[in-house]
Write a structure and sequence with these properties.
Elements: E1 4-7, H1 11-16, H2 22-30, H3 32-40, H4 47-61, H5 63-69, E2 70-72, H6 86-95, H7 106-116, H8 123-133, E3 138-140, H9 142-149, E4 163-172, E5 177-189, E6 192-201, H10 209-219, H11 222-235, E7 240-241, E8 261-270, E9 281-285, H12 289-317
Parallel strand pairs: 1-7, 2-3, 6-8
Antiparallel strand pairs: 1-4, 4-5, 5-6, 8-9
Length: about 350
């Protein structure tokens, strides 16, 4: 990927690039070999990531773009009077005095009902129509969709001229590797680069929400995100590109100055169906002063250590060789069984 700043780069294009990211650093903090394996593996999306991406798009980029990519999954609870089971279909046909084979299967019964009354509401037909209308879109579970769109008003929290979904690609000479970062929101105001990172939080333990947010900051090591994002902004060449690598509209110096200080805020939104009216909380990770210096020093030390390990695995194993090379097969028996296996 050409080094520079990409505005609105498609998410799948960003994830396809083989480079060290803050997420890979966090994986390497647990297991560098697994992080190396993840670097060359296919990027997979789980339901939690889909939820988060959809929420991000709605709040950061608006309902129009959200509706182009996502839609509500079919939910038969939206059609309480529609015919669903074989018993429903037979009961309806009997009520209409329509003849049908008593041994008929569901498909045959549906066809018979539609031929008799094309306006009859049948779950299978409604679901098929929904699938056709949703081609090209990601269907969200009905409850998730309703919950996400109920948060649309949170866009009003994003005051000022933010750049959203900004991707950075650079070669980090200190870490000796290709790096990438994708920031939710960035804006410059009075010589300060303000970074806002949106987080969806499932408060399973039902803590007081600010406490739950603080727990997530600690558990997920968001100081790594903060320092890595600042590193991205300061190390990426000031070359603004489109998603196909050609020059894009370049921000003015007022919009993106050469010299600036940084602030990093986390915007937490509670994923909580029990309380759809829960309000978001913004928390600041202080990157200025003694605290900031400490965070920066700790995070930078981690980056260097984990990047060195990842470089080792990449240089020795690359993309083709497995990182977990199996040694000689060992067979255990009563004579060589370790003590810990005997209990």
């Amino acid at each position: 990927m050409k080094h520079g700043v990409y505005l609105h780069l498609p998410e799948e294009v960003y994830h396809a690039q083989k480079a060290v990211s803050k997420s890979l650093i966090k994986k390497a903090m647990i297991s560098p070999p697994d992080a190396h394996k993840a670097l060359y593996g296919e990027f997979t999306v789980n339901s939690a990531m889909t939820y988060g991406s959809a929420l991000h798009m709605l709040i950061l980029e608006g309902r129009e773009k959200f509706d182009r990519k996502y839609c509500k999954g079919f939910d038969k609870k939206d059609f309480p009077t529609a015919l669903d089971t074989v018993a429903d279909l037979k009961q309806w046909l009997d009520g209409e005095n329509v003849e049908y084979a008593k041994s008929a299967g569901k498909v045959s019964l549906v066809d018979t009902a539609i031929n008799w009354d094309s306006t009859v509401s049948i779950i299978d037909v409604l679901k098929s129509e929904h699938e056709h209308d949703s081609i090209g879109k990601t269907q969200l579970p009905a409850d998730d969709f309703d919950e996400i769109v109920s948060r649309e008003e949170y866009r009003e929290l994003l005051t000022g001229q933010y750049w959203s979904e900004v991707s950075f690609f650079w070669f980090d000479s200190e870490l000796d590797c290709e790096c990438k970062a994708r920031l939710d929101l960035v804006k410059f105001e009075d010589g300060v680069c303000k970074i806002l990172d949106l987080k969806s939080i499932t408060n399973r333990s039902q803590k007081w929400f600010p406490d739950a947010c603080m727990s997530d900051i600690t558990s997920f090591k968001y100081f790594i995100d903060a320092v890595f994002y600042v590193r991205a902004i300061k190390n990426t060449p000031r070359q603004f590109l489109s998603d196909i690598g050609e020059p894009a509209t370049i921000p003015t110096q007022d919009e993106w100055p050469l010299e600036f200080s940084t602030e990093f805020d986390l915007l937490f939104i509670e994923k909580c169906r029990e309380d759809p009216n829960s309000q978001p909380i913004t928390m600041d990770l202080d990157l200025v002063g003694d605290c900031g210096a400490t965070l920066d020093q700790v995070a930078t030390a981690i980056f260097k250590e984990k990047a060195e390990m990842l470089n080792h695995y990449m240089n020795n194993y690359g993309e083709e060789k497995p990182w977990n090379v199996m040694g000689e097969k060992i067979e255990y028996n009563a004579d060589n069984l370790p003590n810990w296996m005997a209990y």
